[in-house]
Inverse folding.
């Protein structure tokens, strides 16, 4: 059973015209209602991938770890980034509550992401799958598991931590989950998240990251960028 077959999920429009999902049972959205794509681009693409590439100019490939595939917004934006920069992406993503292909067709259906979303959401779990792009290679590994039990790849360059808010869901933020991320990174590895919560910041510092508060996306004062130093 997929998540939307077991709980009520509503598609809602956000202020930049892109969509997000709303879970009434949790009173939580998958993205900022002030702009879903704007938030994802700001936090994960600009402050995650662009920042990492700025520090690793000329890099030919990057290994991403994402907590929470959800709608695939970050993966689809990472595909755009891959084409724009020519840097290959290996995108490893963990999801406990997959969404149905039917819902994802409705969600992305009349957008430029429809075809790639279809390829992403229809791709097999637990194996690397190539998503055809016009320039650099993009491959995705979808790992269907609770983040608490997830296998972490040997090496990770950039982490997208896109869990539901720490005030909404327990067990998806904290030292015991951040430690394996830190351990899988080389020096200079980057961890980005939309949350700027004090507990999240302290947990990242506790495992050894240097943590900076950056400007957040519209209507969100801050976000966090952590780096292995
Ligand atoms: C804030 S949403 C973001 C999803 C996605 N990045 C997107 O842009 O749509 C959080 C995601 O984490 C997933 N999730 C929640 N609890 C989880 C857990 N314990 N382990 C793995 N994934 C989980 C949810 O199903 C959801 O897809």
């Amino acid at each position: 059973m997929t998540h939307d077959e077991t709980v009520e999920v509503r598609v809602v429009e956000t202020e930049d015209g892109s969509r997000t999902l709303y879970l009434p049972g949790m009173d939580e959205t998958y993205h900022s209602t002030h702009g879903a794509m704007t938030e994802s681009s700001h936090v994960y693409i600009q402050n995650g991938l662009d920042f990492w590439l700025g520090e690793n100019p000329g890099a030919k490939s990057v290994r991403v770890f994402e907590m929470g595939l959800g709608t695939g917004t970050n993966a689809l934006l990472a595909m755009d980034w891959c084409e724009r920069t020519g840097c290959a992406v290996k995108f490893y993503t963990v999801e406990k509550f997959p969404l149905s292909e039917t819902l994802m067709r409705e969600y992305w259906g009349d957008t430029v992401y429809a075809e790639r979303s279809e390829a992403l959401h229809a791709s097999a779990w637990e194996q690397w799958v190539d998503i055809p792009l016009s320039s650099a290679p993009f491959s995705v590994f979808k790992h269907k598991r609770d983040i608490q039990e997830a296998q972490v790849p040997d090496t990770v360059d950039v982490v997208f931590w896109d869990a539901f808010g720490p005030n909404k869901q327990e067990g998806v933020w904290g030292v015991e989950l951040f430690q394996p991320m830190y351990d899988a990174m080389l020096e200079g590895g980057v961890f980005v998240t939309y949350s700027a919560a004090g507990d999240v910041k302290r947990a990242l510092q506790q495992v050894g990251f240097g943590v900076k508060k950056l400007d957040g996306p519209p209507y969100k004062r801050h976000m966090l960028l952590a780096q292995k130093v």
